Queue: 3 jobs
Job 1
Amino acid sequence: AHLARAPLLHALMHPASTALLCRYPQRAAAAAAAASAASSSSRAANKKGWFRSSARCLAQGTPSSVTPVRTSRVGLGAPSLPRRFVFIAAATAAAAALIPGRAMAWRSSGDTNDELVDNLFSNGVISNKVYADSMKRVDRGNYVVKGPAYQDSPQPIGYGATISAPHMHAHCLDVLGDWLKPGARVLDVGSGTGYLTALFAEFVKPGGVVVGIDHIPELVQMSRDNFKKDGRQRLLDSMEVVLVTGDGRLGYPQLAPYDAIHVGAAAPAVPQALVDQLAPGGRLVLPVGPDGGHQELRAVDKDARGRVTERVLMGVIYVPLTDAKHQLTRW
């Protein structure tokens, strides 16, 4: 009955809740086992006020005035989370059948690439059939290093990096879709194993160019190998896709300006070099926020006169956009 209360459902449907679950899927499963105990405890202590406070806490991204901020070591292999987030993850898992649309992203996993994409589309995570068809043409299984390739969650690719969850790739296609046109020039910062770079290439041909840049040489070579494995070597040979090693925070001025720029890691602030390399009328999409802190996915638009505006799209959790040395210390 408490899960049906509107304030809690609003919190569970917040994108930050989705991102939390998809970033820490093991924790969500582990926390679900404690959901009933947590629910009983909350009923004993002013349940209505607790739920409303937690809803405000998640929606605003600020500490709850009711629940102490402590950490909980639930699950393995990831940083600890505040207890209030663990409870919300547990409640979200328990209430999964009640929440439609984007908040159902973690239920979109499949056994094949087509099944994954079909589930993302039927759950409303992918809004456009054109995006779904493009995702079907690029088999995610050729770009995931280890782990379940068709699970809708991030997967490690080594060197302190991850490949984002499929629902985040779908969302980025959605917010960049109007800029991914034949002949467009696109920059993918933190290109990793090359998956999203390959997806972008589906939209900009003929005549377009996609640059994937990563500061880990081994990942750049891996992405080249993945393109070959996925039958896309011709894109590299024709320079329709350019995969380079470099500091993505500085962009890639050799082929600028870009109609669309995507950044796959969280910057503490919007890098000015990327804004400078954005073409008039272009869009930059990137997560912004501190490592382990409150992060937002932002869209940065430059109009025809060069004026720049920003807007927040959703709350997210990404690995930090940093230098190669610092990234490797996380590995």
Job 2
Amino acid sequence: MKVVNTTSVLCEIELITRWPEFFGFEDDDLSPPPALEDASLGDFFGKHIYLSLFVAVFLSFLQVLFYNLLSFFGWRKRGRDRVALELVCFVAVSYLAVIGIEGYYFRPHPEDPIFGFDRVACHAGKIMLGYQLWNFLAMFFVENMASWQLAIHHSITASVAHIGIFWFMHGFASYFFGVIESTNVILVWIDIFKNSGLDKKLPTVYNVVRFVFAISFFVFRTILWIKPCYLALDSLFSVFSDPIRGSQAHIIAATFGIFGTIVITSLQVIWGVIIYKNFFKFIFSSSSPSSPKAKTQDSKPSKAKVSPHTSQAKRNGKKKASNKLKAQ
């Protein structure tokens, strides 16, 4: 039986998060961002968010690239902008899912889950901030995309990610910024199918993707969500009674963290109700022998069918009548 060396696997996975150093961005191991209580306004809007801005610009470039590639290959104009956006989302959420799963399940968590430091969590926060900045602006340029739920979601997630760069909620960031994005890896393909017409051409594949997404949402955003959400809220509320961590910066951050966690969880509940409703509707409709629409069509009185021989006889009779008129 082959034994897997977990340490070597983690080292190989961790190399994925080292790419910013190639472009000259800071190494969070050697020069981590300052802790929240030590961060200045210049730190919040300085070099520590350059990677986030780079990600936002890079994703915008990808969106334009995908749009033009779809146009080049003759993709229909309707829905092309939405498909290009979803392809960019697929790239971003796939990356976040990989580093999130590594950070949450295969790395030791910081001793202080709220104000401790973890390099992968910090990196995930930077990528998430850039992704949400791009997503917030991009939704206004795509037809029928903008909504108040998405605006609230993008704004709060971007704000928490921004604060999270500076040693905040690193014990849970890998889950909230990474692991749950694995559900969006599937969700983007549902939107691509709907906006490309593939849901009509490949209905079976489309329904399988919908089914897998509903299951993944149930697992990662409902069942597994409960534990980190509870622990995060419990740790955040404990800040108010802890004299050591009760600085003004900590209390403000904890208050915003509680607000953000509750709002994002509420949105999960709203979306979950819609998803589960559609899921059970799909299950029961597919298992029923006949749909109401079919019954309605069957109940309508059918028109009397005319046999080909009868119609041919009528045409011959008309021809004979016209010939008699011509002869007269």
Job 3
Amino acid sequence: QTSRCGRTLEVHRAAIAVRYYAINAPGAELAVRLVYENGAMHRCRATVGRVRRSSTLRVAAVNFRVSEDRGDNLRRAAELIGRAAGEGAQFVALPECFTGKYGVARFKTHAEPVSTEPNAESGSVVLAAAALGYGVTTTGGVVEAVGDTLYNTIPAYGPHGTLIANYRKVHLSRVMGVTSEDDVFAAGEERMVYPAGEDFVVGAACCFDLRFPAWLGRYFRPRPVDVVVAPSAFLESTGRDHWDLLLRRTALDGQCYVVAPNVAYDEGDDAPLHGRSAIVDPWGNILAQTSPGADDLAIAEVSRAQIDDVRRKLPLAAWAE
């Protein structure tokens, strides 16, 4: 019966249990519990009945002022995850390319393997160590090196410090006269879905992906995710008019929460970024938003009750397209 499940998650390394939900009649859901050890399925068990879900997930979007000093960036990133966890966050998201200054000419200098091996100069290891240390789920953007190929990558780590998803940006940014990421990066090909908290499901996106609603719509049918997380390095020149609008549209389309960490505004940058990291609810309301130019946190509660209420009032998932 596991083939009836509404989505597939990859879970890596040791002893992580993940629960999935099938699409059944109201009040009867198929709960499938998968337990992996060292990358292999250890046990799979299915039960039919009403599934008890946790009601809230506290999330944080980090507004991050990236400096020229990689070590300083990594240190402050770890501190901000700790600060968010101290304020009760269970899911903490850093921006795209948080390890160094954004720019086509700079990306190669930020390259790293996505890893959990000890390495003080690795953004992915900072995410993994903070996830393990604070018992939270973390994500954020790094420049991933796979041989000679670079990807604009958003790894995610579960509370055990293990890699649970590795999303490679599909829609590489192209803003004429400002940035052309495909001059450096290879495009990813797959969407990525993973768990957060006990029962919430997150869909991964990154910055320019927000401009492609048909692609994002794959996260919303047939079984919509609860949260879209979109680590970004969104430009100030376009963000003034587009940032809030794109976040709210994505939330409305998916009837889900959007967690959108962004790189902070720095007037000294050749192409300043917008900052104003935000969290948006399924009704399109901005629940929390940071200042533009400083390290800051937007924190809010993801509510199962609100997700269910919005989807009950406007049953968009019932419409076949």
